[in-house]
Amino acid sequence: MKEMIPLEEARALVCGAVKKLPVETVPLLEAVGRVVAADQVSDIDVSPFAHSAMDGFALRAAELAGATEEAPATLRVIAEIGAGDVFKGVIGDGECVRIMTGACLPDDADAVVKYEIVGVVEGDGKPGSIVSFAAPTKVGANVRPAGEEARAGEVVVEAGDVLTAAGVGFLAGCGVLEVPVHRRPRVAIIATGSELVPPTEVPGPGKIRNSNSYAMAAAAREAGAEAHMLPIVKDTFEALRDAVAEAARAYDFVITTGGAANGDFDFIKPVVAELGELMMTTVNMRPGKAQTFGIVEGTPVFGLPGNPAAAYVGFQMLIRPALRTMQGYRFMDHPVVKARLTANEKNKDPRRIFLRANLTRAADGAYEVTPAKNQSSGLFGPIQKTNCMAIMPDGTEPQLAGSVVDCILLDVSEEVAL
């Protein structure tokens, strides 16, 4: 096993060690945001009938041939059709029907003229009135044809598509009320550290609140997983070994925070090595060099650093793609844009550096990026207050103001292409 591996190799290793979870069928609303596991088919034409796209008058377009403002065509209104109603009569020569948005188009009509441009010669525009038209119209004008959105038996959502809120509405209209999706990974979150106390407690001397479990659970939920925060584990080999072994038997993915380096109380590496196969210990990145990964009881186990920013970056770069792989998502990379640095950045560390930063647009329309002043790996605050991560490339070459760097947009879905 290599001492320190490139980020791309690390991600390939982690994603390659997981597999898609089994398919389950869930109610339509529970499928939003998830990957559809099989083609979905409409049971009817959508819409099942031609209907009006707006309030107006349904007629035959030929009736208005040659109509002008000087010599308008006039027609008698013989009926009114509301949404949900069906006109079963006949539209004769010189006649039209008042129609509402969404109402079924009469068999004899082939166009709709919107209400606002129709003049009223006699009456109030309702049945019995005479209305005038000062311009011709086209066949099909303001008409939504039957089957415009889907035909009966047609695949309307494909396997591998991520179901959106609009997709939920589409499937409902197609009669699909249950959807097969890949099961969400059940993720165990274990914070390690004898110094940790729950957030409900006021920390005493030498103690700090356990914030990592909450952040990693939130990140897991953002990735589509079910997150389960397990009790804090003290800094002993035996306690961590027992917690990891139990979690590996009960969950699909195990995440620990803390104890990933080489100190006297850092135990995740020897624990994974004893219980299963240790596959990775360090990655060429900052923050977050210490990243432990292995397989225990057939379950992926990932040991993140205890420093909050290091844990967060490690999750985003390595764990999130793995959890998405388990759910069948096609795309694993957040959008990346290029931006000009607004200040000089010293590059003293040869590792690839992920700077918490804010992306803005300059007067010339180009992106500019300003790294947060405090880049401590021990802080969540700068991550909350920034909107991207600016990447300083591997090596020690300084990046001067005006240099163009890549910026990862973590708050934009991987499905978005920029």
From TrEMBL:
Domain MoaB/Mog: 188-325
Stored InterPro entries: MoaB/Mog-like_dom_sf (IPR036425), MoaB/Mog_dom (IPR001453), MoeA-like (IPR038987), MoeA_C_domain_IV (IPR005111), MoeA_C_domain_IV_sf (IPR036688), MoeA_linker/N (IPR005110), MoeA_linker/N_sf (IPR036135)
Biological or metabolic pathway of the protein: Cofactor biosynthesis; molybdopterin biosynthesis
Domain of life: Bacteria
Keyword Secreted attributed: no
Keyword Cell inner membrane found: no
Entry EC no(s): 2.10.1.1
Keywords tagged on the record: Magnesium, Metal-binding, Molybdenum, Molybdenum cofactor biosynthesis, Transferase
CDD domains linked to this entry: MoeA
SUPFAM superfamilies reported in the protein's UniProt record: MoeA C-terminal domain-like, MoeA N-terminal region -like, Molybdenum cofactor biosynthesis proteins
Uppermost EC category: transferase
Reaction(s) this enzyme catalyzes, per UniProt: adenylyl-molybdopterin + molybdate = Mo-molybdopterin + AMP + H(+)
Cofactor(s) listed: Mg(2+)
Similarity section: Belongs to the MoeA family.
Function: Catalyzes the insertion of molybdate into adenylated molybdopterin with the concomitant release of AMP.
Protein name: Molybdopterin molybdenumtransferase
Encoding gene per record: glp
